[in-house]
Amino acid sequence: MWEIRRYPALWLLPALLPVALMTLYPVAYALWTSLHSVMLLFPGEPFVGLDNYLRVIQSNYFQDALTNSLVFTAAAAPLVVVLGTLIALFLRRRFFGVQVVRSIVLLPWVLPGAISAVLWIWVFHPSFGVLNGLLRDLHLIEGSIGWLTSPRLAFVSVVVAHVWTQIPFTVVLVMAALAAINPETLEAAAIDCKSSWRRFWYVIFPEIKAMIVVLIVYNALTAFTSYDLVYAMTGGGPGTATTLLSFQIWRESFSMYDFGAGSAVAFIVVLISAVLILAITRALPSDLFGSE
Amino acid sequence: MAGRANPWTTGLFAALILLFTGGPVLLSLLGSLIPDRVLLDQGKSLFAEGLNFDGYRYVFTGELPQAYQAENANRAMISDAARQVPASLVNSGIIALSAMVLNILLGAPAAFLFARYLFPGKKLSFLFLILSPLVPAVALVTPIYIMLQSMGLLGTRTGIILVHTARALPFTVLILSVFFRKMPAELFEAATLDHCSRFQAFWRIALPLALPSIGATGLFAFMLSYSEYMFAMVLSGDAGARPVSVVMAALARNTDVSWSLLNTAIFIAIVPTLVLVVLVWRFVVEGLLSGSVKG
Q1: pLDDT tens digits for B102-161?
Q2: Is the pLDDT of residue A143 over 70?
Q3: How far apart are the C-alpha atoms of A243 and A240, rounded to whole Å?
């Protein structure tokens, strides 16, 4: 680490300014909106203090949506990172056709959320879905399983679809982090550690830990603020079984034209995300976020 | 690493990975080649009527698929949105490539500084960068719409490029600084001894070594932009600047649209991107595995 005495504006501002432009004013605007009654159907924008927040927190859907979002995040984020890391470790091997597998793994990435939703609806659809068809052909079931119509199964289905969309990114970054490990470290480890599990845990994992923490944070955020895939697959249903918090922001703002309440949900989401990030980085210390 | 594993387990793992990641897309290819009346009929085998390319012909030439002319079928099953797919791919390509290039150009110097230097205001700048993506996109859409309107950038690709670049930049800086930090310090110490300026250390040493990692990060910025929907939808306005995510969503939300036509559009949208991504990825993987990032 070298010291620079003055703020290196020339190096940093090109990155900071665009981000500031697209966050500071919009956030200020949203904060203002959340403290006022802004409804398209009623003219005037009176100051209402924390009314919007209270109304959101006390409403019926809020607890359901919050619980769903938290469970969704707790299920999806670790699953993505664990599966992604396993696949990345596996794809470093050399075997016939590994090039093809490495490319196919990226497929879910090139699909926008709405399209992934269509593909997974086709897999899970109760009557003409591929999964039920397969189970029927194997004579494992008689009628059909309501993958998207029973609350529990619908939740599992959307988690599977979400994990599918997020895997490639994690694989790419873990592979990149694995490749940055000093080859001599690995050679020494191959001689010292006989079990591949110990080799992973004591040698490889510490080297990629910073990246894993970044990925857990990133995936927790993505899961907590995801809406389009789940919305397109189930519309939040059946009932409120798959209604997520960020979908609620969208619904308040754009389908009910209650921008005040929409912004209030948004700030609640920001607050919870900040707590999530803090909790993750505390639980998994890494020099990345430290002051050093 | 271990290359002597049991070939059977290797094969099994490879097959499972292929099935999970590629399966749904393969289904879509199949669906695009089979008429709806076969797809939706549980009793019929999928290949009862063979494969046909009517959907593809419609997207590129506008000629209606036979099935919908013959059976006085619902006209709503054919959507014009399917015909916008090729043009929207061009839009998406321009937008995502620009966002990718801008991310690397603007983000790499900052990442290098965060990884290697101490300076006043470092903590605050870094905190700002990692906290900014916390705000959900939905909450930012309205104010950003108003802002771009006043700049006259609504309905243009430039506006979308600006937003996408800014949304991806925090991650670009974060990820690249992880890579820059991994580089051995001795390399840079030698550089300071030789009186290399900071720019030279960055340009001559850090950048060339990090090239595959930069490729991976650029790929990330590209994909973030390519698949982003919320801003693209609100900011693109009418057909002119619409990227593929918006067109495909319009098609997917239309519950009347023919499944086989929808799958055709999906597949046409996938292919060029997949080719591009695989090419970049090949470069990244080869760079990474051949050990050009020697520790």
Answers
A1: 999 999 999 999 988 888 988 888 888 878 887 778 778 888 988 898 898 888 999 999
A2: yes
A3: 5
Chain A nearest-CA distance from B207, in A, is: 14
Do residues A56 and A268 make contact, with C-beta atoms less than 8 angstroms apart?
A: yes
Q: Residue window 121-140, chain A: list those with CB within 8 Å of chain B.
A: 122-123, 127-128, 130, 133
Cβ(B219)–Cβ(A109) below 8 Å: no
Interface ipTM: 0.78
Chain A residues in contact with B167 by the CB 8 A cut-off are 22
Tokens of B4: 């002597």
The beta-carbon neighbor of A211 closest among B119, B178, B295 is B178
- Contacts with A164 (C-beta within 8 Å, 6 or more apart), sequence order: A108, A116, A120, B20, B21, B24
User: Which one of A1, A2, A186 makes the best mutation probe of the B interface by having the most chain B beta carbons within 10 Å?
Assistant: A2
- Same domain (yes/no): B130, B16: no
Interface of B with A in 115-154 (CB under 8 A): 116-121, 123, 125, 128-140, 142-144, 146-147
d(CA B156, CA B228): 16
- pLDDT of res. B46: 64
Res. A83: pLDDT tops 90: yes
Spell out which residues of chain A touch residue B178, defining contact as CB-CB under 8 Å: 177, 210-211, 214, 288
Q: Do B295 and A181 touch (CB under 8 A)?
A: yes
Mean pLDDT score of chain A: 82
Q: What is the pTM of this model?
A: 0.81
Residues B13 and B90 in one domain: no
Residues B45 and B88 in one domain: no
**Closest CB from B1, B40, B226 relative to A186:** B1
pLDDT at B65: 66
Report phi then psi at B262, rounded to 5. Answer: -60, -45
Do B114 and B64 have their domain in common? no
Residue B294 is assigned to a structural domain of this protein: no
d(CA B33, CA B53): 6
Between 1.10.3720.10, 1.10.260.40, 3.40.50.1980, 2.30.170.40, what CATH number should domain A9-283 receive?
Answer: 1.10.3720.10
Contact call for residues A225 and A246 (beta carbons, < 8 A):
yes
Q: Is residue B295 part of a domain?
A: no
Please report the pLDDT score of residue B292 as a whole number.
44
Domain-wise residue ranges, chain A: 9-283
End position of a domain, from candidates B23, B58, B81? B81
In 3D space, the residue among A130, A31, A287, A161 whose CA is nearest the CA of residue B27 turns out to be A130
> Is there a single domain that holds both residue B152 and residue B282?
yes
Q: Which residues of chain B have pLDDT under 70?
A: 1-5, 36-50, 62-80, 193, 195, 239, 255-257, 287-295
Q: Which of residues 67-126 of B touch A (CB under 8 A)?
A: 105-107, 109-113, 116-121, 123, 125
Residue A149: CA atoms inside 13 Å, Cβ hemisphere, count? 7
* Overall number of domains in chain B: 2
Q: How many residues can be counted in chain A?
A: 292
**Domain carrying residue B207:** 82-289
Residue among A14, A87, A94 minimizing CB distance to B109? A14
Flag whether pLDDT at A19 surpasses 90: yes
